[in-house]
Fold these 2 entries.
Entry 1:
Amino acid sequence: MTSSVAAPGEPDIVVLADAGAASAAAARRIAAALAEAVTARGVAHWATTGGSTPGAIYRDLAGEPLRDTVPWERVHLWWGDDRWAPPDGPLSNTLAARELLLREVPIPAAQVHVMPIGEAMAAGHSPAWAAARYAEALRTTALPPDPAGFPILDVVLVGIGSDGHLFSVFPGSATWDDPAWAQAVPAPTHVEPQVARVTLHPWILHAARLPIAVAHGAGKAGIVGRIFGERGDPRDLPALLARRPGAVWILDEAAAVILPPHLGRSSMA
Ligand code: 6PG
């Protein structure tokens, strides 16, 4: 396993031939970071993502040889965001994890921290209620704080929306103005699915020990080019939060075609 050399002030950017190779590389990085966290602190906290990105990563993590490299019984799994939809339905960000990862690896049920959206929907509560419960779950876990007081997770995996969103923090999001660690987000009208969301505060991505952003396919080339072509305000382009030293971006060739050539590239990960 080899890392690319990051350009000064930039994340480690790894470009691989195709989506399968990018997912495999992301799985290897996650497995290594979880194992390192357990060695260092006895526990590992990982916030995963929704969308189409994590499925292949889960499959790689659940298969040999990675599966046995992670002390899963010490791992806590969180979500960066979830949709206001039944947890066993296709819109839920938890479904892929439950089907592809959690059936295969022994993370104790009490350490699988789903956003309480099913519970909220069943009881007639609002997304704000679910967000407040989730923020409370994070607080009672007593994670170490970053200098701004936000909890430090060991690994935060994100996909990147074609508008530059991460978690459910969209361009122009109001989440920045509220310090709550988890927040309700009104249904977006410019991306699918157009349902309300619950999201972590964007700063939690920045505060993480290892933010990992994964993007593949030609449909992501434009936004990847924008993220690495300008130094704008993350309020306008939230994915810029993951453009920081110490973060890892794993792309395939199709998503990286507009990546400025001076930024780190590697064919290995
Ligand atoms: C969601 C996500 C969202 C997603 C990106 C990328 O609930 O929609 O968590 O932030 O990660 O939109 O989606 P893809 O992985 O499908 O490209």
Note: The helical segments are 19-41, 54-62, 95-102, 117-123, 127-140, 203-207, 221-229.
Entry 2:
Amino acid sequence: MKIYIDGVFHAKADAKISVFDHGLLYGDGVFEGIRFYNGRVFRLKEHIDRLYDSARAILLEIPLSREEMSEAVLASCRENNLRDGYVRLLVTRGVGDLGLNPKLCPRATVIIIADSIKLYPEELYRNGLEVITCSTRRIAPAALSPSIKSLNYLNNILARIEASAAGAGEGLMLNEQGYVSECTGDNIFILKNGRLFTPPISAGALRGITRDVVIEIAAELGYTVEEPNLTRYDVFTADECFLTGTAAEIIPAVKLDGRPIGTGRPGEVTARFIERFRELTRATGEPIGL
Ligand code: PMP
């Protein structure tokens, strides 16, 4: 495996950064998780745009142009001779001293790891995930915007610990007002009486790339997606529910807090979305050039 750090590919054992990097010391940095399928990187431009927006929001200057960054992602896939897999792209604040001040970090560190992905078992797509509501609330946008895909994921990790302890596949996170925001690493959609709903970004959700793809597929299939504030009531009483994320893709959620959602089985509309999503991942994207 070859890992990109600041323009140079290193063997896995040699891919190291300084202990003074503020990405490590403070979680000061941003990242993306990107998939590539069948020799093409899916929604590369959207991921790069979100990365640069996250960086802008934390006043982090990325030392590469968007074009150079996109090319570095493609090169990382090529270098590893992979046609299917997952890319973890990180930009950290870089090396500074032990103080918080990012001004003392002269140059951001760029890391790109392209790896084969351990897929969720196909059985989960057939049978659906169980979800619990986490006590840990999604961090308030006024404290740290959930739109920033930052390296500081403790809020999500604390919620994920609860979900794992309960034996659930994902954890539902509410915001401080008690409205549904998202799951620990996925966005959430519900279907009710033929209408699709997902929480608004303002409720504390990441603007998921997969969420946007689902909104596009919805338009193709004749659904509009509404974004009102949602509560657990809406999930309990939904006909279908599914989660979306780069790693999970589109995955049915069939239980919340032990209660079946709809029939308690993955729904038909969800299945149509999964099918169309898989067509798109197979056939579209930025060619790696392998
Ligand atoms: N919410 C959170 C908190 C996430 O970490 C992710 C995964 N990156 C998502 C939602 C889904 O976003 P995407 O579809 O862009 O992977």
Note: The chain has two domains: 2-115, 122-282.
